[in-house]
Amino acid sequence: EVQLVQSGAEVKKPGEPLKISCKGSGYSFTSYWIGWVRQMPGKGLEWMGNIFPDDSDTIYSPSFQGQVTISADKSISTAYLHWSSLKASDTAMYYCARPSAQLSNAFDIWGQGTMVTVSS
Amino acid sequence: SSELTQDPAVSVALGQTVRITCQGDSLRTYYASWYQQKPGQAPALVIYATNNRPSGIPDRFSGSSSGNTASLTITGAQAEDEADYHCNSRDSSGNYWVFGGGTKLTVL
């Protein structure tokens, strides 16, 4: 079964660092990009950026450039989303998703989401 | 603000047909995809490349596009179709992905 499995919910304080993960299985992890999508409470989806795990080529949304870091470890089929210093406004659900070139880059597989809560 | 614009909310009577639209200049050039999101769940792809359904998606879901507007049509809406629907495409530069603001569909 093709799937993306994300790490569990996090509760952090402002200023703390955080790295969440997304592990792919059931397909060739290095052959597909992985994207990250934010959903703030009660709001729509926002594309943050994509990474190609084979060579770690990364593209960021201008809205998120410099705010987060996307990385990947192809040896363990895992992509990451990292904050060096969290803000309360980072409170959101974060999804990883696979854009498929075969489906004109639609996101065909989604992780279950990681809820990040930032509160003092 | 999103480069793709959706109506915040739409309603449809059970069994009737509803169209959900997504407007943006980039849709003149790039394909749209559509995602269904039920409360507490991750989004799920229902339409890709404007009018193609992934396997397992009922044929009451269809897509179309004209000019700067992409549409998702549900023919014979069912109670289980009540959900948020998000459109997705590239931005005008073609370099980035972008989502619409989402449409909450209520089935009456």
Reported for the largest beta sheet of chain B, the result is:
6 strands, mixed
Assign the structural class of chain A, choosing from mainly alpha, mainly beta, alpha/beta, alpha+beta, or little secondary structure: mainly beta
Strand content of chain A: over 45%
In quaternary terms, these chains amount to heterodimer
Description:
The complex is a heterodimer of chains A (120) and B (108). Chain A is mostly beta strands and 120 residues long. Chain A is built from no helices and 11 strands. In chain B, strands 2, 4, 5, 8, 9 and 10 form a 6-stranded mixed sheet that branches. The mean pLDDT of chain B is 95. With 108 residues, chain B is mainly β. Chain B is 0% helix and 45% strand. The radius of gyration of chain B is 13 Å and the shape is globular. The interface between A and B is medium-sized, with 24 and 25 residues.
Properties at a glance:
heterodimer, A: 120 residues, mainly beta, 7-stranded mixed beta sheet, 4-stranded antiparallel beta sheet, 11 strands, 0% helix, B: 108 residues, 6-stranded mixed beta sheet, 45% strand
Topology:
The complex is a heterodimer of chains A (about 120) and B (about 110).
Chain A: E1 3-6, E2 10-12, E3 18-25, E4 34-39, E5 45-52, E6 57-60, E7 69-73, E8 78-83, E9 92-100, E10 106-110, E11 114-118
Parallel strand pairs in A: 2-11
Antiparallel strand pairs in A: 1-3, 3-8, 4-5, 4-9, 5-6, 7-8, 9-10, 9-11
Chain B: E1 5-6, E2 9-12, E3 18-23, E4 33-37, E5 44-47, E6 61-66, E7 69-74, E8 83-90, E9 97-99, E10 103-107
Parallel strand pairs in B: 2-10
Antiparallel strand pairs in B: 1-3, 3-7, 4-5, 4-8, 6-7, 8-9, 8-10
